[in-house]
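Supplementary Note 3. Input sequence used for the single-chain structure prediction.
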Amino acid sequence: MPGSEFLIAFVVAVLLLSITPGPGLLYIAAQTIGRGAKAGLFSALGTHLASYFHIVAAAFGVSLFLQLVPAAYVALKIVGATYLFWLGLRFLIIEEPDAGSELSSASQSHIRALKESFVVELTNPKSAVFFLAFLPQFSDQAASYPFWLQIILLGLIANLVFSLIELCCVLFANQVSSFFRKSNSAGRWMRRAAGSVLIALGAKLLMSEN
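The predicted structure, written as discrete structure tokens, is reproduced below.
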């Protein structure tokens, strides 16, 4: 592994990147605003788990394939954007169940939030390419650990830092939205706002050039 000075620089860089508002934090905030804190937490968990696939892909060169084969990158981007559109439309069209049915189906709702965020992160080619481009900058070819293992270990550290910031995002978004959630009309507008954010994220992903 790299020396302590490189690890400190790595953690600082990851922390700075994680606190910069981006599509990931906006997605988790939208889920929290639209569905509540538990759905936001499960969304963060889904993102966290999917990131391990990107880390392994970066370690073994799968992400490099997305860079070298533009058609594969574009196809994955279209799938991810379409899924975000679909999630956003669900927020805009489908109303939340009443309190009684919400309690009875809470676990199913949270698992759905986890699955949705897992798919969103997994089909985001930008995340895959990010890990591939970022992690090797802090690896050491002369280290006793093999290169792929260094990438995985650095990825684990980065993913934990990202998830910690996402947890803070959920808590903050929930505090902001909890006041309005008591009103039915405000709750509907919050879901519409969340759906609009998801659709905007899908459009941004679809129109991005790289």
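Confidence is low (pLDDT under 50) at residues 98-104. Residues 23-207 form one domain.
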